[in-house]
Amino acid sequence: MAKPILFVTRELPAEAQQRLESLTSVEVRQHKSVSAISRHDLLRGVHDADGLLCMLSDKINEELLQACGKSLKVISTCSVGYDHVDTQKVKEHGLLLGYTPDVLTDATADTTVLLALMASRRAKEALDIVNSGQGGFSLSTGLGMQFTGKTLGIVGFGRIGCATAHRLAPFGFSRILYTASRPHEERARPLSALHVPLAQLLEESDLVCICCPLNQQTTNMFSREAFMKMKRTAILVNSARGAIVNQEDLLEALETGRIFAAGLDVTVPEPLPADHPLVRHPKCVVLPHIGSATEETRNAMANLAIDNALAGIFGKPLKAQVQQ
């Protein structure tokens, strides 16, 4: 009897890849590359698959689901976000959808803090000075902002937002504000964090960290209107999803001094072209979506994605399932 087919759209981190290659209960078909699979190869590769293990870069829509055929049982995305998946179509096709929450909380929160520190202390400009071999100690140039006595604003107070606040609190913030769809009193209590409307958070925060999911309500949440509410000394950090920030409006805010600086781990597209104005702007730090990029986290994500895929193929409960 033929084994079920698991199609994997990317090479996995070493530990998880070794596990994948040792599986005997399924036939593994894989785009064995660190680069994203082309749409053509993806549509061809999923044919007759029983399970699909995909990445954020893989658009899961009706076209793909039609290409899969009737054997597909489960889609397992190696990510905590699933805005690349048309969940309504997945539901209509009667498929299970797995994802990888929890395991990337710490790594992503760490990256958010990294961006906050780099942006606040103008690290990009400082590194450029070092790399150019020019400059030295100056008492009055290249001055950044410190966090002592300032107000921290967290947009989205889920696992990552809360972990980010806990990491940043010891830097001396006098107040922590957060905005979310509802108050999170138990999470907020140890931080003495206050649940406030977005407008108030923007007006009062010195550092604004975006940690919310991408959906219809948060797409373009940070546009010119939002930047006009922020302090001129404010710093914006986005480690969530690129489409939450209108990049043209962010560039304008930086160019006009509407805000002090920005740090981005996520953009539209990814990666941004090397000559993109935000990449070249001295007060904008751009990273290539490394939020979860640690050995521990990426292997944990991939192993959970494998677990979800195998469970769905063999009719068992998924360890982490998106409730549709």
Q: Main attributes?
A:
alpha/beta, seven-stranded parallel sheet, five-stranded parallel sheet, 13 helices
Reconstruct the topology from this structure.
Blueprint: E1 5-8, H1 14-22, E2 27-30, H2 39-45, E3 51-54, H3 62-68, E4 74-77, H4 87-92, E5 96-98, H5 105-120, H6 123-132, E6 151-155, H7 159-168, E7 175-179, H8 185-188, E8 194-195, H9 198-204, E9 207-210, H10 224-229, E10 235-238, H11 247-255, E11 261-264, H12 277-280, E12 284-286, H13 295-313
Parallel strand pairs: 1-2, 1-3, 3-4, 4-5, 6-7, 6-9, 7-8, 9-10, 10-11, 11-12
Helix pairs in contact: 1-13, 2-3, 5-7
Q: What does this protein look like?
A:
It contains 13 helices and twelve strands. With 324 residues, the chain is an alpha/beta fold. Helix 10 links the parallel strand 9 and strand 10 (235-238). The longest helix has 19 residues, at 295-313. The radius of gyration is 21 Å and the shape is elongated.
Give a nutshell description of this structure.
This protein is an alpha/beta fold and 324 residues long. The protein contains 13 helices and twelve strands. The longest helix has 19 residues, at 295-313.
Measured by DSSP, the beta-strand proportion falls in 5-15%
- Helix tally? 13
Strands, total number: 12
Helix-strand string: EHEHEHEHEHHEHEHEHEHEHEHEH
Which outline best applies? elongated
Low-confidence stretches: none
Percent of residues in helices comes to 25-40%
Distance between the termini: 33 Å
Radius of gyration: 21 Å
Give the spatial strand order of the biggest sheet: 8-7-6-9-10-11-12
Instruction: Decide which structural class fits the backbone.
Output: alpha/beta
Biggest beta-sheet profile: 7 strands, parallel
- Average pLDDT figure: 96
